[in-house]
Each structure stands twice: as C-alpha cells, then as structure tokens.
Specification:
By secondary structure, the chain is of the alpha/beta class. Helices cover 46% and strands 12% of the residues. The chain has 2 domains: 230 residues, no CATH class; 259 residues, 4-Layer Sandwich (Nitrilase/N-carbamoyl-D-aminoacid amidohydrolase), CATH 3.60.110. The strands form 2 sheets. A 6-stranded mixed sheet has the order 5-4-3-2-1-11. A 5-stranded mixed sheet has the order 6-7-8-9-10, with helices on one face. It is globular and about 75 Å long. The chain starts with a helix and ends with a helix.
Length: 510
Amino acid sequence: MLALLSGAILGVAFLPLPLGFLAWVGYIPLLIALDRHRETRSGARSWFALGYQFGLAFFLVGTHWIALLSNVAITVPWLKYPAWLAAAAYLALFSGLATWIAGTLVRRSALPLTVIFPCVFLFVEELRASGELGFPWFQPGYTQHAYAPVIQLASLGSVTLVTFWVFLLNVLIWRALRGQSRIRAALGAAFLLALPWLWGQRVLDAAPPRDGPVVALVQGNIPGEIKWSGRHELEILDGFLAMSERAVRDSLKPSVVIWPETATGSYLKKQLNQALAVFEFSSREDVPVFSGYADYDFDTAGRPRYYNAAGMFTARGQNPPRYAKRHLVPFGERMPFQGLIPALGKIDLGQAEWTPGRDAVLFPNQAGPFSCLICFESIFPDLAREDVRKGARWLVNITNDEWFGNSSALYQHAAMAVFRAVENHVPLARCANTGLTVLVDSNGRIVSRAPVFQAAIVKGRLPRPSRTTLFTRVGDWPGLAAMIGMVVLFAWPWVRAPGLRALTARERHD
C-alpha cells in the first residue's frame, strides 16, 4: 500500500495545478517500504514487485490523458483504454527495475539506502529516456516547472539535475522523519531546499531585459476532424492568413509570424496555389512566415519519403532549407526499430510513417538565427542543446496538441518545453494549434500566453538570450555521473573486501 500511495502522490504532482511540492515528499512512502524490505531481507522478486506497484500507480495517474485522446488521434478509438493500461504497465517496468537494482545493491554492498536510492533511480530515469522508445515525459524534475528559482538548476545540468535534487530532498526528509541523525538530516534538507531558491533568485535578478525584436505566434484552433478531412485546406489557410494580417497591423511589426505544426493539414509548399498565397502575404507585409507542414520527396529509387516538416516563407520568395522532424513519436509517427528490422515498416497501426530528419537547421531572422523543435522533440534536452551549440539564439517549438483535449498532457508538454529555454539560456517561442501557445524568456518564465482552445495571437518582444550555460557546454553530466555511480556501487563489495578480511583476521587474533 505504501508503494501505491507513493506512486499516486507523485502522479498528482504532474497535474496542471501547482503541486510540484508534492514531489519533495512523494517518494517517502516508497522509501519506508524499501527500508522494511531491507530489514526483512526480502528477495529480488519482492523488491521488483514493490517498485512495479509504485510505477503502476504513478503512471496510471500520470498518463490518464491517454484515455481522453480524441477519436481523430487514434485509428480505433476504443484502443485508447487498453493503450493507457499498456503504457502504464510498460513504464512501470522501469520503476520495478530501479527497486530491483536497489535491493541487489543493498544486499551486496551493505551501503545505506540513502546512498543507493538517488543514484539508482537517476540511472533508471536515464535509461527510460534513451533509445527509439525513449520517453522522459515523467522525469520528476519536471514537477518543479512552476518554481522559477528552483529550475535554474537546469542551466547547470539539465532537468536531470533537478530530478537528482528531488531524489536527494526526499531522502533527507525521510531520514529526518525516521529518527536517525534527525537533526543533521533536517538541516541538510533545509539547506538543500533553500540553496536553489536563493541562488536561482539571484540568477533571475541578473536576467537580460525583455526588449528584443517582436515575434507573433498564431494559434489557429483547428479541430482535428476539419484539419485532416482534406476538404477544408483553403479555408484553414485563409484563416491563418487573416489572423496573420491582424498580427502585423500595428506599430509593433513582428520579425516573423509563426504557425503551428502541420498548420493547414496540407502539403503546404507542394501545393502551388497555397504556397503562393503565403509567399504573397509575406511579400506584401515584408514579414516572413514560419510554419509546420507535411512534405515529401523521392529517394534514389523513386520511392516517396514523407516528412513532418517546417520551413520559412520569405518576403523575397527565397527557399530556405526545410527542417524535418528528427525524433519521431514511436508507433504514432513511425514504427520503431526499422533500422534493425525493415519489415516493421509494413505494419500498419495507423501511424503516419514519416521519414526522420537527420540534422538541425538554422533559420536566419532579424531576431537572430533560430532552430525548430517539432512537438515531441521538445522533451529531449540533447536536441535543443545541439541546436544552440550550432548557433541558434532562440528556439521555436511548434506542436499540435489538439489530440489530448484540454487535459493534463497539454500542460505537461508545455512545462517540459520551458526547461529547454532554461537549460540553454535562450528564449523559446512555442506555437500550438490549440494551446498552450507561449513566449518564454531564457530563464523559463512565461512572458505571454494564449488561452487554450481559442483562436488567438500571442505577440510580444522576444526576450534576449543570456550567457552560455554549463549544460550547453558540457551536456548531461548528472546522467553520466549516475552511470559512473552505478559502476562504483556494484564494485563496492570488491573495493571493501580487503578491509573486511583484515578486520576479520584481527578479530580472530584478538
């Protein structure tokens, strides 16, 4: 029951309400249960079951929005219910793996749980985020998105460092409640809680002014059944052009107008009449339009390749390079592991079967060169870091979260994108079809936003980037440290064995 309670608390911390403080204590019931297993010397299967119960409760609460997906989002609507259960059951395997490893190390190394728990759980979080099935959506550090001073830690070591901070805080509070070294643990928890608040506030006070060039984000609010019907493309395009006209009709002329992912639901650049309409607007108003759109080309054998793409429509009719989404949603946008087993691409589960892009693309603009993250890509820190290291001075995130309805997923997705700004100290313009459309400064504070599920324009001055961060320069060093820590923990019995043998010999001599 303690494991289930712990998972439920942590799942609730991911709801749209500002409940991130629940993550500071959410792991404590699990730690209590793990400690009881340590005392009773339970077997590996029991440790795994405990973590699996925790993970199942956590992910059932966290991913409840899968059961709320619109019928447009899934080919067979009733499958969303077993998909919800299957997703939670699969993700819970990682929690079970974490507690199984922790139990193994407790038995073998005799190190305290307070040392083993943060390292093991951080290591498993890194595993969950890796590979073609990588899904870092519920990394605990994201629960802190509403606490601007705290998330400045991400500029030092990504959201991974914030997650490690959450784990350490739980361990120290648990020790303070447990009664062993209570005063020292309580003081440690207080220090750990205060440090990022005090340091983070100093970082915020030194942030650059929000006086950069103006940008405009157009939230079209197009229902999926209209967008993907194939019968309303011109009507949708006219709506985006009309809103863009309003966005440029005042003294604050934007340096770019941004439309969301697959904005019109068409092959916008391939359909000549539609492309010319956008170019004509851009030329008339002398403002480039950046939009997401479906695209295609042909390989050397003449076979078509389809892309979830984005690109610029410029005033002079130039043709800047196209950006194609690099990290596609497994099963939704592409069947995974086709590189190993090409036949998997022939399985049709209703996925779009896009071709993944290969490289980051920088788009020149008066506001400075920017790069694009399409939808799901915004949850992967390394993609944004790669873009910034190549010269991006701000990030654009375009998405179509209409699939989720007005559920927690809308807010969870936007909260993760905010971390990409903090990690690299660059501003972020996030344009969504139905929301959340936001303008974010380089410290992760929302400058302006549009209401969800309404046609709206977000227009404002793009905040300026700040100094290059440690994360941008070095990368995910906390994740690397966790992996090294795992090696040390497994090697510990051999490291300490000579000392134990010497101690045993002395005891026998005495």
